[in-house]
Each structure stands twice: as structure tokens, then as C-alpha cells.
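fyi for ur records
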Amino acid sequence: MSDVVRRITRWQVKCTPERTKATLDSIHEDMRARYEAATTDLSAMETDVKQTLNARGINTINYVPYLSFARQLFKLSNKKGITGESMAIEAKVLLEKWASRSLNPDVLAAIRFENFSINEPKP
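which gave:
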């Protein structure tokens, strides 16, 4: 039997709908709990960022791009292994990206510091 035929046969045996369903059923509760925790954290972060935007006088119609910046910082801050100066540099790159899209850099810096406690990187 050729290698290609053997691989296809093994894949067909391994990837049956019943086996896939059994695998997903066994991890479903853990997946649901992780999704619920992540969604709760994301929602709390967005509420905090909206308060920061409100304090800076940003109109609600302009919240969307600022929240997109905050979500990117949130994703970055939840990555394992990125902390300290590396985190500050990555956050600065995101700040410059969103500032180039006509967002107020002072407001972006406030979100970065007040909501994520990320300082300006050292020169």
C-alpha cells in the first residue's frame, strides 16, 4: 500500500463524525468555562476603557476605534511571556499604529497606562 493511500485511510478512520463528537463532548464543559471567563474579563476591560474615554471627553460615536486599540492591548497583555520592557515596546507600536489612524495619542496613552498599567518604554 502506498504511503498516500495509507495516510488517507488512517485519516478516515481517525476523523469520523462519531469520534469527533465524542472528543468535543468530553471537553465541552472546560471550553465553555474558559470562554465564559474570557468574555467576562473582556467585558470588564471594555467597561473600564469606556469610563476612561468618557473622562477624556470622547464622544460615544468614536468609541469603536479606541475599543479596538484596547482589545489589541488586552490580547497582548494576556499572552504568556510578554512583560516589562517588551510589553511597553509592543504597546508603543500599537499606540503609534492607532495614532496614525487619527486617534488622539494622549487618549491612547491614557488607556495604555490607566487600564493596562503599561508604562512608556525606556529610550
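The chain has a mean pLDDT of 93. thats all i got for now
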